[in-house]
Amino acid sequence: MNAVIHVDAKHPGAAINKNIYGQFSEHLGRCIYGGLFVGKDSPIPNVNGMRTDVVDALRKLQVPVLRWPGGCFADEYHWRDGIGPQEGRRRMVNTNWGGVVEDNSFGTHEFMELCRQIGCEPYVNANVGSGTVREMAEWVEYLNSDGDSTIARERRANGHDEPFHVKYWGVGNESWGCGGNMRPEHYADLYRQYQVYCRQYGPDRLFRIACGPNGGDTQWTETLMRRAGDMLDALSMHYYTVPGAWEDKGGATVFDMDRYLLTLKNAAGIERVLEAHLAVMDRFDPAHRVGLIIDEWGTWYDVEPGTNPGFLYQQNTMRDAMVAALTLNIFNAHADRLVMANIAQMVNVLQAMVLTDGDRMLLTPTYHVFDLYRPHQNALSLETAVFADRLANGVKQISASASVRDGAVTVTLANLDAENAAEVLLDVNAAEIFTGGRILAGEVHAHNTFEAPETVKPVSVDALKRTERGTVIALPACSVAALTFRA
Ligand code: AHR
User: Fold this and answer.
1) Measured in angstroms, how far is the CA atom of residue 71 from the centroid of ligand 1?
2) Which domain holds residue 419?
3) What is the pLDDT of residue 105?
């Protein structure tokens, strides 16, 4: 036996906020344009400009929340450029990402339409770096007001009578970097000012999200909490898994075992970092009123050869599936404090769910992990103790988390060892009847291509071996499974 897992199914803990399974879409490379939005006149099948194939796949994933328009782009985005007749919209250069012309044909109404089609909640990230308080205040009013103001009338004239009721508002992005290069003191003061004008229209309470730290920068968190902690609903940190120096991250599909182990070690590091921030937050907010969000996370490799370096296009292998499984298990285990997370990014950028090429589309191994983990959304987390050997990088070979909803216990577990299978003994504490499951497995470099889009996909697990001590599961090298049990 390589590992023993105890799941305490008798004592459910905090609910796993479904928004932990959120996503991020930026005006970056081919995420929005070509990936999600092709325009009404495109030969690619679409509904109101949104790709039917991609939207269908994302609907199945039950994406709970989608962040937009950036990223670094958010702090150069002026929402008024993206409303009104598409042909008259202002053209700008996307200076952050590839220097391409942004024609603003995808704007506020298009984003809301995309969310409607996917069935998710919108999370709008406003511009603090190069915007104004008035600009942000008017965006909130434009989206949410039911009054008879000039701005609400403007929304109606642009085709939407009812307010959109956008709850989640980000105040700046990476304000310590591309969002204005600010000191935490300066940002905290600006945050205090901007949040005043995020007005509530009607009964819907806005959820105000402050720009949090870069990775492990607890100084930022401390300053923000001290100066503005009583005025925010959540702060958002970013954490990317970069396996090496920025100049040498390695490719998405070509990597050796050392790079694989470094990738997992860095991915596992998110737990230490988020706990460090939570400890700082606890000092200022012992009642835990303020939530933690991780609204950018995922792998970041060298771009695919021959692609625009500013487009951040990378393939996605079973290595990414392992990172996703490990990270989501960590998130589930911190359900009491984590209120949202958004993987970067949804389509064609960084650790994407979906890749497109013209009218072709494929689902990545990361998509399949999100699919396997769907039952965790809004379920109650269960304490999960994993006793396992460690890989050469110090990370446990087996990663697991569990939750329960309506009597059904879901256990998600990954064998992070790229070369060795594992036998795992699972004790689910009184919920021992196995009712079904699925597993995603493959050689660590395995990935889907447009020519062979189903190379990596989950298969069902029909039966498991029962012993007196629990259920025995054979996990192939580099695999992730979702299993359900009931009492
Ligand atoms: O996701 C890509 C970029 O990474 C985002 O625009 C920025 O916020 C972060 O640095």
Assistant:
1) 5
2) 384-486
3) 98
